[in-house]
Amino acid sequence: MRTVFGFGLLALGLMLPAVASATDWQPSEEVKAYAITGRTGMELYRSIGEHGPQAGPGRVIAHTTFKLTWTRKYEQRGSACTLTYAKPKLIIIYTLPKAPADLPAATKASWESFIAGVRTHERWHGETIIEMVKEIETLSNGFSVPDDPGCKKIRPELTVRLGELSNKQRQRGRDFDRVEMSEGGNIQQLILKLVNGP
Fold this sequence. Notes:
DUF922, signal, 24% strand, DUF922 domain-containing protein
């Protein structure tokens, strides 16, 4: 589940110099494994095609998603409403294939190389999510909307601005995947090495 936020403080909000930072958080991670079958690299890859996570119109080898919630404190300062505290709780969820434990030695070596490359690819996506949440945190702490008695305008204004950060992160992911999965790209090379054996 993705929580959509965005960026754009300069046009509307004011950064206040004496706002406490909430940077003492750490993301947590979950790995969801889906079982595949096979004795050869080709059989394992076919099983991935049958059992991999659904993403868009088809199935993928692996997937990275996240759950993001916030603890926020809004304060009325004169007629303005200011977000004085924003602390995230971020869970990054990696969905990865899990091969049988008793693979033949040659297939096992190919599989371990393949899955290590897939993990590296998905970790990159995880890092961009963490970067996005840190940017959201920086933007959020001290975000202020003038003439907002009762703090009714600030939430939709903040959501609009944070949406740009979310869109930027998603675009980075799409651009990265386009390169990684292109002809001759890293993912294609990992697949070819797996299906062709050691």
